[in-house]
Write a structure and sequence with these properties.
about 290 residues, alpha/beta, TIM Barrel, eight-stranded parallel beta sheet, 9 helices, 8 strands, about 40% helix
Length: about 290
């Protein structure tokens, strides 16, 4: 059982441009000791810790947490993929055994063609050579370009974060559904079953999510979907436990083997995390 997408942060680091004191729910520190009871109650063994700031410094910070936290199986960090020294940065970070991937924050980049630039293409090749995964944090408007990127880089292990964040609250489905189907059909990318509740209305129900989840199941199949909590961001939309309960309801018609794929098997194959490290008392976690 793997949570394929969660975060930790310390507000005093000051490199989270999107996180401000106006956010009463998220503007505080979130650490392993806060997540441990939630994943313990859910029967989750390991997690994938994902970057939340576009800095190498934050990636080093997350790798430090991973060293001290046995349930963190791997870290998806950040690197300047459009920089001339991107390969050198990747080499520096990849020395750490728990670095499993890299995620540029494409959703926040004004240039929608950024991902198709020559420098980024070279860096994606370097990612593939180092057997690191690529997390695509995109919106529906990016999916046509993402498809081109993946076609250019067929050896790159890629996953679409949060199913590209469809606007469930607005009822946007058709365009998103068509583009996601093309990504699934024409590339080998996986997709994260995560982040959907924060795109739904405040009073979301499982039925609001069902058309989107059913479409992802039809397009990607259980063998290319991986579940993630998106904790603590999920606290904006009902919390970890409510999303976990909704997931079980949405996947209830699948067989045990298929559910196991989505709830851990796909993430284990995709991220290829190493063995867990010796644990320390939860109270001592950063």
């Amino acid at each position: 059982m793997i949570d394929a997408h969660q975060h930790f942060w310390t507000t005093s680091r000051d490199d989270y441009g999107w996180l401000t004191p106006d956010d009463a729910v998220l503007y505080r520190d979130f650490a392993p000791r806060d997540l441990a009871p939630l994943i313990g109650a859910a029967g989750i063994d390991r997690t994938v810790l994902v970057q939340a700031a576009p800095t190498v410094a934050e990636t080093r910070y997350l790798l430090g947490i991973a060293e001290r936290t046995d349930f963190v199986a791997g870290v998806v960090g950040w690197a300047p993929l459009d920089a001339p020294n991107a390969a050198d940065v990747l080499d520096e970070l990849a020395v750490h055994p728990k670095l499993v991937g890299v995620r540029p924050m494409i959703q926040d980049i004004a240039d929608e063609d950024w991902m198709l630039g020559e420098a980024v293409g070279a860096s994606l090749g370097a990612l593939a050579e180092r057997e690191l995964a690529f997390d695509a944090l995109v919106h529906p408007r990016h999916l046509s370009r993402l498809r081109v990127l993946l076609e250019r880089n067929p050896t790159l292990r890629a996953v679409v974060d949060h199913a590209a964040k469809p606007s469930i609250a607005a009822g946007d489905f058709e365009g998103w559904a068509k583009d996601m189907a093309l990504v699934a059909c024409e590339t080998s990318a996986c997709c994260k079953l995560s982040g959907l509740v924060t795109e739904a209305s405040v009073d979301w129900t499982t039925d609001d999510l069902r058309p989107y989840v059913d479409h992802l199941l039809e397009c990607f199949g259980p063998e290319r979907l991986m579940w993630g909590s998106d904790w603590p961001v999920v606290e904006l939309a009902g919390g970890f436990e409510r999303w976990r309960e909704a997931t079980h309801e949405l996947l209830s018609e699948l067989g045990e083997v298929e559910r196991a794929q989505i709830l851990g098997g796909v993430a284990a194959r995709f991220y290829r995390p190493g063995p867990t490290t010796p644990s320390i008392p939860v109270g001592e976690h950063t």
